[in-house]
Amino acid sequence: MSLLRRCLNAVCFFSSFISVFSADILPTLVLDDEEESRVEAVKTVSPANAASVPETGEDAEPGSSEIHEKSVSETELAEAAVCGAVEYLKKLSSADVEGFVIPPVRHRVVVGYENKMLRYSEQMVNVPVYETVEEYRNVSIGESTDAAKVRRKVKVKKIAGYKKEKKLVRDNNGPVEQMTKVPKFGPGGPDEWRPMLIGWNAMAVYALVCAGTPYADEAVCKPLDALKNLFAQYGYPDGTWDLAWTAAAFSAVDNEECRRMAGEMVGKLVDGQIMEGPCKGLWGPDCINTELLAAMMRKQTEYSDFYMKVKERFDEKKRDSDARKMDEAVAALQQFEKLMKRVSMICPEAWDDSLFVAKRDKDGVAPPLNIANSFSYCANQCSADIGSTAAAVYALQIALREKTAPAETWRPKDEKGRPMTPPRRTSDAVKAVISALVASQNSTGGWTEMNMHQPVSDFDKIPGIDGVPIGVRTFPALDSPQTGTSSAEAYSCFTCYAQAAGVSGLNSIAKRVIAANSLLQKTASKGLNEVDGGFVPPYDFCFYISNAVDLGKPEYDVVSREDLVRFLAENQNADGSWGGDKPARKLIMPSSVRERTKVLPAYIGDKGKTDGFDRGKPFVRVGKEAESRQKYMTRYYSYQLKPLRTIFALLALTSESEWQKE
Predict the structure, then answer these.
(1) How many CA atoms lie within 13 A of 132 on its CB side?
(2) pTM for the full model?
(3) Which of 468, 469, 462 is nearest to 297 (CA)?
(4) In terms of pLDDT, which residue wins out, 14 or 441?
(5) Can you tell me the distance from the alpha carbon of 220 to that of 209, in angstroms, rounded to the nearest whole number?
(6) Using alpha carbons only, what angle is made at residue 595 by residues 103 and 451, rounded to the nearest 5 degrees?
(7) How many whole angstroms separate alpha carbon 606 and alpha carbon 628?
(8) How confident is residue 409, by pLDDT bands cut at 50, 70 and 90?
(9) Do the beta carbons of residue 491 and residue 440 sit within 8 Å?
(10) Residue 529: how many CB atoms within 10 A of its CB?
(11) SS3 content of the chain, % helix, strand, coil (to 5)
C-alpha cells in the first residue's frame, strides 16, 4: 500500500473516530435564527463557582427546574401504576363482547344485538370521581422509526376518590325489569374455554375490584354476569384455579347473588382438598370431592336400576301403579342431575380422554361451550402441588374476610335425611393445609413445588368405569424443585391461618414462620428479577409476598412496601402492562401437570395411542410428544403473558394485609 493511501486511510479513520466520539457530546441548541459566529461558546464553571449556577443552566426560565426528576413518594408511584394497570385491563375487557380480559376461543361471531327483559335491583355502589391534573410525562414526537421523547406537561385523568350512588345492578332476583341490549350470536361452533381460563378472567376482575373498580363498572359486572349464567346452568368449575379465583371475585363484590354463589363455591373448594395419602391437606389442579361424587353415582345407579325394573314390569302388565313409579324414578333422576352440578361440572360424563367436554343448555339461558376436561383421569388418580394449594388457600382467606365462607360444606341427604357423606368444616381445611405445610418445610426454611400424584379408589366398586382399580405401584416419583415462588406461595398460606385463628395462632409454629421469612428475605435481596418459579416470575412472587402474614415489625418484611412499589412502577410499560414482548406467549400449566407430562404416557401425543389405551395406569391427556406431532399442547395451554403479569402486579400493588385494617 502506498504512503499516500495509508495517509488517506488514517485521516478517514481518525475522522470517523472523531464523529463517533463527538456523538456523546450534547449539542448547544439556539432558539432564534442567528448566525453561527454570534452563538456564544459554552461557559465552563469552576468548582468554586458551581454552587451559584442553576442546575438547569444559566438561561433557564423561572420554574423550569420542575423538569428535573423529583423524589416521588411511594403512594404517588403506586397510584400511578394502579391507574395504568386498571386502564390496560379495562381496555382488554371492553374489546370483548362479554367483557372478558382473556376471552375464550370464539367460534361464534356477533351478528347483531337484541333486546331482552332482564332483572335489576337498585344498590348503592362506589362510583369513581375523576380529576384532571397536569403531570410531566415523556411524549414521543416524530415518526415511529425515528421518534424522540420530549418531557413536558400533559393533562392526565386520574381517580381522585369515590362517591356513593344508587345504580341499577344486574340481579336475577331483582324487583326491577328492564329491556337490555344483549349480543346475538350467529352460527358456528361453541366458545372454547381452555384450562385455567375462567380463573384468569375471575382473577382480573378481582384485581380490578381491589383497585377500587365498583361492581357497576362493565369491566366487573359484564364478565361476572356471564359467569353467573354459565354456573347456574352447568355448575361450578372443577379446576382449582378456576374455582378459587372465581370464589374470590364473587366474594369481593357488593352483590347479593354473587356472594351467595361465592359461599357455594368456597364449599366446593373445601370439599376438593385431598384428605388422604401423601397429598393429604393439599389441593391439586382438579377440585372434586371424589368420595361424594362416588356416593352420588351409587345412588344414581340405584334409581336407574329401579326405573329399568319397573319399566320392564310395566311393559309386561301395563299397570298404572308401575307408570307412577316410573314417573317418580324419572323425577328422582332429574333431581340428581341438578344436584350433581354442585359436585362436578363435567364428571362423570367426561370420563373419556377428549380434551374438551361439550356443554349444552337445553333452556337456552347460557350459551353452549366446550370446556377443558379435568387435568387427571379423576376416576382413579389425582395430583397436588403448592401452586394449586396457594390459590385455594388465598380464596379461603378472602372468603373468611368477606364472610362468605360456610361453616361446613353442603351435602345432599338420602331418603332418611342423612348426609350422603360427612360434611367438612372450613376451619378444619385451614388447619389441615397448615399441618401439611409445616410437615413439608425443609431445612432451608422453604418449600418445593410439592408435585405429587397418587391413586384414587372411591370408584373401585362402581361397575362400568374403565381403569379401576388402578395399579398403585405404577406411580413414578415426580420432580419437585424448590424455587423462590414455591416458597412464597407456601409462606402466604400462613396469612389465611392468621385470618382464621388470629396472629397469635402462629405462636406454636413461630420458628417455622421466622425461618421461611428469613429465606424469602435472602431470595428477594438477590434482586426480584432473579426470582424463579411460578407462572410469570417475578410477578406472581411479588403478589404472594405482598400477601405474606404481617408479623408486626418492619424487619420481618420480605421486601419493604416502598421497594416493592418502586420495582413494579419502574418495570411497568407505557400502556400499563408489565413485561416485554418476547416471549409473547408460553405454556402455562400447574407444576404437577408439567412434571406428569415428563414421565407419564399420554392419550394424545403418545406413540402407543390406540383404541385400547390402558387407563388403568397413571397417564396424562396431553403429553410431551403432542407439541411436535399435533400442536395440542399449544392449543390447550398457551397464554399471552402480558395480561397475566399485569394481573399479578396489580394485585401486588393493591394487597397490603387488608384484613388487618378492619
Answers:
(1) 3
(2) 0.79
(3) 462
(4) 441
(5) 8
(6) 100
(7) 11
(8) very high
(9) no
(10) 9
(11) 45, 15, 40
